[in-house]
Amino acid sequence: MSVSICSALYSPLNLHGVLASPAQSKSAFWSSSMDGESPLIVILVPTVKTVCCSLHQSCSVQWELYKVTAVPIAHISLHPQREQGKLLSQTDCYVSLWLPTASTDKFQTKTIKNCKDPVWNETFYFRIQSQVKNVLELALYDKDVVTQDDHLFTVYFDIAKLSLGEQVFMHFKCDSQVRSEIRNGIGWHECVCLLFCLKCYLQNLSFFSFLKLLCVCFCVGSLEKEFSFKVQGSYEGTQDIMLGSDLVFGFSAPAKFHYARYKQPTLDVTLPGKKRHEIFFFPDLYSSPDHLDVRLGFDLCVQEKDFLRKRQNYVAPALKKVLQLEQDLLDHETPVVAIMTTGGGMRSLTALYGSLRGLKKLNILDCATYLTGLSGTTWTMSNLYRDADWSQNDLDKQINEARKHMTKCKINSLSLEYLKYYKKQLCQRKTEGRKTSFIDLWGLVLESLLHDGKDNHRLSDQQRAIDRGQNPLPIYTAVNVKNNYSTLDFKEWVEFTPYEVGLQKYGAFVRAEDFGSEFFMGRLMKKVPESRICFLEGMWSSLFSLNVLYIWNLSHSSEDFWHRWTRDKIDNIEEEPLLPLKLHELRTRLFTPPGPLGSALRSALTDRFCVAQEHNFLKGFQVHNDYLENKHFCRWKDTVLDTFPNQLTQSEEFLSLIDTGFFINTSIMPLLKPERKVDVILHLNYSAGSQIQALDQTCKYCSEQGILFPRVDLSEEDRKNLKECYLFDGAETPGAPVLLFFPLINDTFQKYKAPGQKRLESEMEDGEVDLYGCCSPYSTYSIQYTEKVYDRLVQLGEYNILNNKDLIMQALHKAVARKRQKKK
After folding, report:
1. Same-domain check for residues 681 and 725
2. Residue 536, H or E segment
3. Domain end point (choices 241, 262, 287)
4. HSE-up of 524 (CA within 13 Å, CB side)?
5. Sign of the CA dihedral 462, 467, 472, 474?
6. Residue 418: what pLDDT?
7. Which residues form the C2 domain (predicted)?
8. Which of 1, 337, 372, 493 is the most exposed place for a label (fewest CB within 10 A)?
């Protein structure tokens, strides 16, 4: 037996989908509750096939109650020629309404059978919040009793277009091209809606609270019964509690639900047995504290700002010494220098050691403020930051330790002993509440390949290596993806530092030690032990997250050929009357789902073998009504879903994280945040194949996004025969950083063992480093080197840095001059 109890019986348990107060979010990107109540929308949907109705409240301090009545006065003509079997009968249609910012439930009309011109007359109620982006989705379905209901199309309507107190007749229609395409599937549609808005005052409500139930039950029958409590949309969802022999649910076992005080939830109670039960509920309501465990804002965190002040004490003297300046550099004259690396498996791990040793010998390592990496270079970085003073000491110890593991036999990693260890570790992660995958197993394999035994090091432990500003701040990168979308269509940059993990696009960050824990509306709900860093390394270098489309792109310049199969069919549809469109408002759109063949092909192209999944710390958040006007969001607004707020990351249960190289093999994006004010970037490239491809892709991406980046102008001759280093000063792009580009090539190293020191005849063999040949030992997928192969690559990486000292000094001088000029 099931009992549904409206939350209004106890107190206004209106689920509230906002995230933070204005004081907690300088960006004002996420919506805020202010101290008010959400308005009520009443949507009346009669005589209509598809309904598109909603409204926008005025942004006043007090929330207001709205009543929206939609009365369509035109019908929809349907042409049922979707399937052969349905030519003999009319469609059995119903309309689904979903406003996720107001309710977790999807509402639907009754099904009108055997009718091509169906008419409904039903009323739906929503309570909405003016500061969030409210997009109503109205989907038309053809009911099928045998197979899954056919999804014909969905209309997306931004209710912010409608003003208070006005009566509007809305007529949505497709243009001729879209109408023709839809007719080939099911039929075209036109509908007219009457929207009427009323308003009235409601009392203030807090935006987040939790409910604790104390239930006293009297029942006839056997004891020890199990009761099920459910609050749809709450963090807990459903809780099952056993009734004790005293027939009382006491405080020792209360049912707690954390929910948004905004969406009008109901408490559903499922009772055991079929006999009559009499139940008395005594709910206690609590408002949550204002403090959020998710940091909202695009500024740097307090810890990173403190690090920058301390790092200044190392960088300024080092630059003065390296550049042979007569006077000390003032704070505003000291450029921010960053070392940026690319991925490339064990090749990038090895070459980075050489590059860093070269920078150390030039005393430039102390001039760097940031060090970023992805894929294989994250293995080098995580090894280095175990030593709290690694950049202040000689790097030979770390290089020799890495040599030992690079040259050891790797077969032991698949021994029975290790397999048992892997299983035990994976079971432990599952017990902790994590969602395990093959990526976690890959991380454990990496641990065995690069270390002796279990490595208990964690990302937050690296704070010890930067607490005095003694080393550059490490930043590790990944991208968040979405199922059924290619990385060209959907990806979001994720950065990891010893302080925080966050998504740049949303301005949302959590402490490094809390990453992987469960959050709801910015609150830490369930603390999960911090992952050992080997699991993060597996995710940062998840070569198993490829899909067919990525393999295609390896041999072709773009995926344009496959776009008709991998992208959603979205069309703008006309409105009559044409409502004025403000900057923050979205156009009305029509989504036409693909047929069975299109869906199957899209899945075949975009499905990834596996991805690393972590609990989404954006869960329960909703985007602000003006989010598209936020300059920080627009900087990283590069996905096909950015104008579909209901489908952005905050709606997902898990983050799906993969190697950044599956989009662009670069870790440069965190350095292009204006808040970090990076002046010089040393681009250390370790890619396989084309050495310029990742840089070209970065330039194109930055140009499309409006991100300041120097223009890369290489002649055809240079592209065919690359030099060891290029300087792009960004003079044509004011505000762009100076870029030093180091491709991984073997040029003068073949004849010189050190800058200006030629090789003897007997030493010429040491200069032979086959980086990219078909028999090269440096393949991205090679996991074992000989000592000679390892040493030569380290020496090559070091030599290419040392041999281009003059260009590095030129870049640093230019950066200092710009800083001084800017101050004048």
Report:
1. yes
2. helix 533-540
3. 287
4. 15
5. positive
6. 95
7. 57-172
8. 1
Q: Which one, of 152, 168, 33, lies nearest residue 95 by Cα?
A: 152
Residue 632 domain-assigned (yes or no): no
Distance CA 391, CA 235 (A): 45
Least confident of 205-209, 373-377, 594-598, 794-798: 205-209
pLDDT of 406 reads: 96
My answer on whether 732 and 818 are in the same domain is yes
What's the rounded Cα separation, in Å, for the pair 162 and 582?
Answer: 11
User: Which of these three, 238, 258, 287, is where a domain ends?
Assistant: 287
What is the residue whose two structure tokens read 């409590």? 229
Q: How far apart are CA 531 and CA 529, in angstroms?
A: 6
Q: By residue range, what is the domain housing residue 237?
A: 212-287
Mean pLDDT (whole number) for 142-154: 85
Q: Residue 179: is its pLDDT beyond 90?
A: no
Pair 144, 226 in one domain: no
CB-facing half-sphere around the CA of 480: CA atoms within 13 A: 27
Q: Number of folded domains in the chain?
A: 3
Per-residue pLDDT averaged across 80-106, rounded? 70
Q: Is the pLDDT of residue 345 over 90?
A: yes
Asked if 478 contacts 465 with a C-beta cutoff of 8 angstroms, the reply is no
DSSP letters for 224-293: S-EEEEEETTSSS-EEEEE--TTSB--TTS-EEEEEEBTS--EEEEEPSSSS-EEEEEEEEEEEPPS--S
Answer yes or no: do 169 and 277 share one domain: no
Q: What is the CATH number of the domain that holds 671?
A: 3.40.1090.10
Which residues, in sequence order, are CB contacts of 88 under 8 Å at separation 6+? none
| Phi, psi at 540, each rounded to 5° | -65, -25
Q: Which amino acid is at 146?
A: V
CATH number of the domain residue 121 falls in: 2.60.40.150
Q: Is the pLDDT of residue 276 over 60?
A: no
Angle between helices 376-384 and 345-361 (to 10 degrees): 50
Is the pLDDT assigned to residue 562 strictly greater than 50?
yes
Phi, psi of 50 (to 5 degrees): -115, 145
Do both 59 and 150 map to the same domain? yes
Q: Which stretch of 198-212, 705-719, 734-748 has the lowest confidence by average pLDDT?
A: 198-212
The dihedral sign for the CA sequence 266, 272, 277, 279: negative
Closest C-alpha among 370, 372, 366, 365 to residue 340: 372
Does residue 639 lie within any of the structural domains?
no
Question: Which tens digits make up the pLDDT trace of 309-331?
Answer: 999 999 999 999 999 999 999 99
* Residue 326 vs residues 182, 313, 320, 323, 712: alpha-carbon distances, Å: 73, 17, 8, 9, 33
- 191-213 burial, b for 16+ CB within 10 Å, e for fewer? bbbbbbbbbeebeebbbbbbbeb
How many residues are given for the chain?
A: 824
Residue for token digits 């260890």? 421
Q: Are the beta carbons of 754 and 747 closer than 8 angstroms?
A: no
What's at 364, amino acid-wise?
I
Number of CB atoms found within 10 A of residue 248's CB: 15
Structural domain includes residue 369 = yes
Both 686 and 778 in a single domain?
A: yes
Residue 477 lies in a domain: yes
β-sheet bridge partners, residue 657: 480, 612
Residues known to be catalytic: 375, 659
**What values do phi and psi take at 339, rounded to 5?**
-105, 115
Cβ–Cβ under 8 Å, residues 573 and 155? yes
pTM: 0.85
Q: Are residues 265 and 326 in the same domain?
A: no
Residue 181: both structure tokens together = 């395409």
- pLDDT tens-digit map of 517-553: 999 999 999 999 999 999 999 999 987 766 555 666 6
Sheet containing strand 2-6, edge to edge, reads: 2-6, 266-270, 226-231, 238-242
Closest to 140 (Cα-Cα) out of 175, 190, 105: 190
pLDDT of residue 110: 87
